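4.2 Preliminary Data

To establish feasibility before requesting continued support, the project team ran the inverse folding procedure on a target of 255 residues. The structure was first converted into the token representation described in Section 3, and no sequence information of any kind was made available to the design step. The complete token record follows.
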């Protein structure tokens, strides 16, 4: 059992979507023994994920509405998790938004919107749970970055998205140094082209075929491909893995 028989909870943000990485990650972490807390803007979707996870894996699961950009909302939601479930042992900062707008057309408001969700949201949730993890000398924090942050866009996200996801890489590396002595690991996962709602219906068959032809694995990734890596990083046994970025892109960006 990945939690050493010690009951622990994993918080996954932005996990309401039925075809999203967040929901698949919640399932993978539950299968590894974590109890699950889902934070999502869509309350019904969060509750649906929680019900599905609890029924399939026999763990406790809680779905809550929370705007990760709102400090008070994050504090209240985590407070509910702490009151209802075992101590938080893992956090997956999955909530995020993309923006395909060209840099010359990006408004300050659009730039701020992308950074608010991707960066501020990750900061607020991480800041709320990190101290408790350090006090308990156990924690697994994972940030969802993107291949766009490493190669400089070129998939769906424009400059704002790539810059925000790159900020998360620096965030994770620095935090890994600070929290490492307290038994808390901090890593990033950078997915490439994954079959989610973000890509659904947005690729012509010609462009899809051309993109797959450039991937050594010769396919688009599944959400489970990403979720399995996150679950691996969340294991107690992964205590010597920290400050790293794990690419899940089928070899489309090798560096």
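Position-by-position output of the design step:
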């Amino acid at each position: 059992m990945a939690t050493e028989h010690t009951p622990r909870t994993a918080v996954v943000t932005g996990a309401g979507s039925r075809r999203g990485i967040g929901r698949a990650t919640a399932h993978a972490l539950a299968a590894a023994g974590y109890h699950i807390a889902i934070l999502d803007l869509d309350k019904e979707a969060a509750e649906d994920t929680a019900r599905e996870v609890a029924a399939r894996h026999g763990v406790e699961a809680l779905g809550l509405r929370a705007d990760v950009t709102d400090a008070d909302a994050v504090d209240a939601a985590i407070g509910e998790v702490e009151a209802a479930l075992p101590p938080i042992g893992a956090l997956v900062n999955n909530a995020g938004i993309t923006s395909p707008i060209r840099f010359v057309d990006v408004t300050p408001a659009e730039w701020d919107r992308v950074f608010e969700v991707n960066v501020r949201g990750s900061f607020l949730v991480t800041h709320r749970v990190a101290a408790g993890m350090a006090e308990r000398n156990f924690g697994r924090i994972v940030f969802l970055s993107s291949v766009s942050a490493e190669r400089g866009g070129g998939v769906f996200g424009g400059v704002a998205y790539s810059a925000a996801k790159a900020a998360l890489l620096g965030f994770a590396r620095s935090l890994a140094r600070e929290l490492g002595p307290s038994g808390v690991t901090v890593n990033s996962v950078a997915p490439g082209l994954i079959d989610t709602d973000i890509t659904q219906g947005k690729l012509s068959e010609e462009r899809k075929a051309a993109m797959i032809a450039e991937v050594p694995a010769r396919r688009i990734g599944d959400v489970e491909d990403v979720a399995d890596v996150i679950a691996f990083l969340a294991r107690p046994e992964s205590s010597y893995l920290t400050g790293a970025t794990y690419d899940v892109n089928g070899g489309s960006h090798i560096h």
